[in-house]
Structure formats: C-alpha cells, structure tokens
Design goal:
globular, kinase, alpha+beta, serine/threonine-protein kinase, about 220 residues
C-alpha cells in the first residue's frame, strides 16, 4: 500500500519537529480515511473492546495508529467527548502511549428505528496514537524467543512507573494486561488503552463489580 500523500490541514509538516508532534489535534474524518486506505483490512493491526486499530501512514512514511470506535460504543456524543480527549492528550509520561489526535464528527444518515426509516446524526469517533514498532508485551513474551532478565526487569519497572503516574492524575486502568503494554524500539514499555472510561456516557454504560467493560 502507498502512503497517503495528502497534506495535513492547516499546518506544514515539511520542516521542524516530527509530523506527529505538529499534527492538528482534531483531524477530519476524510483525512483519516485516506491515510488508512478507508480503514482497509490490509491496514487492520488489532482489535480492542471498543473498536478496531488501523495503521495510518503520513506522506513522509511516519506511522500512527488510528483507533476507530464502534458505532455502538457507549461513548458520549456531545462536547464531553472532545473535552475529555483533550484532557487525556495533555498527559505526558515516558511509560504511557501518547494520544496524538482525534476525530469526532456527526453525519446525517438514514437508519431504521422501530420499523421506520429516519434521518439521524451518526457520530464517527476515532483516536490517534503514536505507533510502537515492537508490538505488545504479550507478543514478545509468548510469540518470540523470549527476553533476558534485565529486559524483563526494565519492562516491570516501566509499567509500575506508568501506573503510578496514571493513578496520581486520577485514572484507573481497569484492564491492564500484556496485550495493553506496548514496546518501543528500546523495549521501553508504554501502557495503552487507558482513560477510555472517561469517554463513556454514564447514561449508556453501567460499570459494576460484576460487569467490568475495561478501561
């Protein structure tokens, strides 16, 4: 697949810092469709509780991960979503995955409801993260040749530091597992899938001790 050649809106990424750092925070849906080949199966790299993960490629080859939340995800549909996403984007720590952009667009669509067809506002909600080439801790533990003790200790320490940071800012992960720990080139661990609970609409979801939906 060819990288998406379209320009990012409003900002020039040809000079200066990484394109990921200079991207506008709110990204148009059409832009994300183009950089993921319209969310093609070839760009699908994983699935999570609330949606699918796709590899997005910028014009210079820089990669990001685009998480397309399912239409039936119990997320807030008003400005609460955008506000909470921007709060999460402000978090910076070496052991948590960076949220670098998002999309929250409503489109008019004809849907069937109670036996009738109506024109409704259907929201597309997407989250964009930094891309970590080494994949998940689960993959490296169980699908590779393993890791030496020093590397394992580094990963354990990094996870603890990331969790401590999240707890200090009031975020409880609720779904920490090897699949949600991603590794960089230097095997530094980064916690993923955190903060999703802040995006949920309390009227659409019910979390309790018997039915935990994850982050």
């Amino acid at each position: 697949m060819e990288p998406f050649q379209g320009g990012l809106p409003q900002r020039n990424i040809s000079k200066g810092p990484s394109p990921v750092c200079t991207m506008p925070k709110h990204l148009p849906l059409d832009f994300l469709k183009k950089m993921t080949d319209n969310f093609s199966d070839e760009r699908l790299i994983g699935k999570s509780a609330f949606g699918n993960l796709y590899k997005g490629i910028l014009a210079d080859g820089t990669m990001i991960v685009v998480k397309k939340l399912a239409e039936n995800s119990p997320i807030a549909r008003d400005k609460t979503f955008s506000n909470e996403v921007q709060n999460i984007m402000a978090l910076r720590h070496g052991n948590i995955v960076k949220l670098v952009g998002f999309c929250h667009e409503g489109q008019k669509k004809i849907v069937q409801k109670e036996g009738r067809y109506i024109l409704a506002d259907i929201y597309e909600s997407l989250l964009c993260y930094e891309y970590l080439p080494m994949g998940s801790l689960h993959k490296n533990l169980f699908e590779s040749n393993g890791m030496d003790w020093n590397t394992r200790f580094k990963i354990i320490k990094g996870i603890c530091q990331g969790l401590l940071f999240l707890h200090r800012v009031g975020i409880i992960h609720m779904d920490l597992k090897p699949q949600n720990i991603l590794l960089g080139d230097d095997m530094e661990p980064k916690i993923a899938e955190f903060g999703i609970s802040r995006l949920l609409d309390p009227e659409l979801t019910r979390l309790n001790t018997q039915d935990v939906m994850g982050t």
